[in-house]
Amino acid sequence: MSRSTSRPPVLLAALAQLLALFAVWALQVGLIRLFGRPPVDAGVLLFVQGLLAAALGLRFGLPRWWIPIQIVFLPLAWGALTLALPPLLWLALAAVVFLIFRNSALQRVPLYLSGPDAWAALAQRLPRTDARVIDLGCGLGGPLLGLARQCPQARIEGIESAPLPWLCAWLRCLREPRILVRYGDFGALDLGAYDLVFCFLSPQPMLTLWLKARAEMRAGSLFASLEFPVPDLPADEQLQLPGGRTLYLWRL
């Protein structure tokens, strides 16, 4: 697991790209002076630049899922420049990507999808049949709909701060009156109203979120995290799901 950092990941990724690009440029200049001509194909240099950017990103503390992004970024950008596409199209694509993955860039919380195995495990561990449940960072709304089908008496909520995933979840849940989909930051939400709080975020916010949960949640309620444990705090229950993921549960 990569070291956490207080700097926005997108800035660290950009810095890694620039440093790698400068290193590859300096290497190319040196090789030209030695051999009198470029001895290495441009595609090879782009690949080397991507590998170096990925290595620098890890050194700066970026999570490992940034590795493929760093490797392919410059080759894809170079290839895109060869396409005679309108500039507004690239701007629109960039806007769509940002609206979907803004949490990855700004808060180090990628868009993860939990899957039916996690929903089934949560449904079996509701503190009571009419429990009030919230999914922090509900993504596209899958867990909300899955829990609604399996727990017909439960009151289910989700909150999401990435605009397009929130819109998708809101539209998917419109026909289910027991589901409320909020737009916003769960940091401003009072967790004391919920019997079960579920999240599938990243290692970065887990300690802060646990301290918030411990301060606000009622005795007897349940805090659950898929894949990412609270640092240095053993879970009261740890479930290995059929899909290979781990669900961690803490009882308040």
How do you describe this structure in short?
By secondary structure, the protein is an alpha/beta fold.
Q: For the record, what is the CATH homologous superfamily label of the largest domain?
A: Vaccinia Virus protein VP39
| Radius of gyration computed on alpha carbons | 22 Å
Distance between the termini: 27 Å
CATH class of the largest domain: Alpha Beta
| β-strand amount | 5-15%
The third-level CATH topology of the largest domain is: Rossmann fold
Question: How much helical structure, as a percent, in the residues?
Answer: 40-55%
CATH architecture of the largest domain: 3-Layer(aba) Sandwich
Low-confidence stretches: 1-5
Q: Tell me the strand order in the biggest sheet.
A: 3-2-1-4-5-7-6
Description:
The protein is of the alpha/beta class and 252 residues long. The protein has 2 domains: 9-84, no CATH class; 116-251, 3-Layer(aba) Sandwich (Rossmann fold). It is built from 8 helices and 7 strands. Strands 3-2-1-4-5-7-6 form a 7-stranded mixed sheet. The chain is elongated and about 75 Å long. Mean pLDDT is 81; it is low at 1-5.
